[in-house]
Amino acid sequence: MRAIVATPPAPAVVADVEAPRPRRGEIRLQTIASALNPVDAQAAAGVYHDLGWVQRPTVGVGWDVTGKVVEVGEGVDGIEVGDVVAALFGGVDKAVGTHAEQVVVPADATAPVPASLDPVAAATVGLNAQTARQALALLGEGRGSLLVTGAAGGVGGYALPLAVALGFDVTGLARETDREFVESTGAAFADRADGHYDAVLDAAVLGDLSAVRDGGRYVGVIPPQTPESERDIAVDAVMVAPDGVELATLLGLAADGVLAPRIAETIGLDEVPAALADLSAGGRRGRVVVTY
């Protein structure tokens, strides 16, 4: 089969690799769609090799996937060949990622794609929506005012409606051109962080505590880039963990229209290496999705 692999510092390529087989607790998917995320570009560029997180010279790329189940490993219940599922296949040190014609994933990281939800759109939910939901959980039981930075981005765009549903008084920080989207989620719009908020979810990775009130809460999305606490602010960062039960809830919210999956463009597998190189340019509203 064909898959995207990278041997940094060389660019990512489409390679012929052996099709994976599921072990106990795993399932094999014929890929329908996989979404590109910044972590994919970082893995392909060798960021995690440099950090010592990846030892193998050649690494597979991709976290988000939807696919049709073609093989079920031992010990897996409730999933049948032919089912269409989504999965968050976490981790940066893997031989084959989700940008591949077939992928093996842990069964407990998967969830069925609702019949009313396009499987291509469903591929955008896993990493970004689970990051948003788990970041909000780190804010604790208190509610009050919440500023979401990067509110029109992948994580921020899902954080807005999730936070509104939880009862936060939500403001989304974004460009003026994103006002309509931000306000469509039920959040207020801001193009600059004036004032002080009870909490900040920093999806834009600004690393700035100035918008948090004394004794407030801050949650980042990249642990190594979390600022030092000051003014008694509780500082934390999310490290997303795949969770099939949580993913099922989020896919249901997408099917019901509470969450709005956004696709910037769809591409083929051969176009992925160039798309990864261009991903850091930013400015897109929605994910680049690979279809198979």
Number of β-strand runs: 16
Class computed from helices, strands and strand pairing: alpha/beta
Arithmetic mean pLDDT: 95
Give start-end ranges of low-pLDDT stretches.
none
SSE layout:
Elements: E1 2-6, E2 13-16, E3 26-35, H1 38-45, H2 47-50, E4 59-60, E5 64-72, E6 84-88, E7 102-106, E8 110-112, H3 119-122, H4 126-138, E9 145-149, H5 154-166, E10 169-173, H6 179-184, E11 188-190, E12 197-202, E13 212-220, E14 234-237, H7 244-255, E15 263-267, H8 272-278, E16 287-291
Parallel strand pairs: 9-10, 9-12, 10-11, 12-13, 13-14, 15-16
Antiparallel strand pairs: 1-2, 1-4, 3-5, 3-7, 3-16, 5-6, 6-8
Structure description:
The chain has 292 residues and is of the alpha/beta class. 23% of the residues lie in helices and 29% in strands. The chain has eight helices and 16 strands. Strands 3, 5, 6, 7, 8, 15 and 16 form a seven-stranded mixed sheet that branches. A six-stranded parallel sheet has the order 11-10-9-12-13-14. Strands 2-1-4 form a three-stranded antiparallel sheet. It is globular, with a radius of gyration of 19 Å.
Quick overview:
The chain is α/β, with parallel strands linked by helices and 292 residues long. The chain contains eight helices and 16 strands. Helix 4 packs across helix 5.
Considering the chains and any ligands shown, give keywords for the structure.
single chain, alpha/beta, seven-stranded mixed sheet, six-stranded parallel sheet, globular, 292 residues
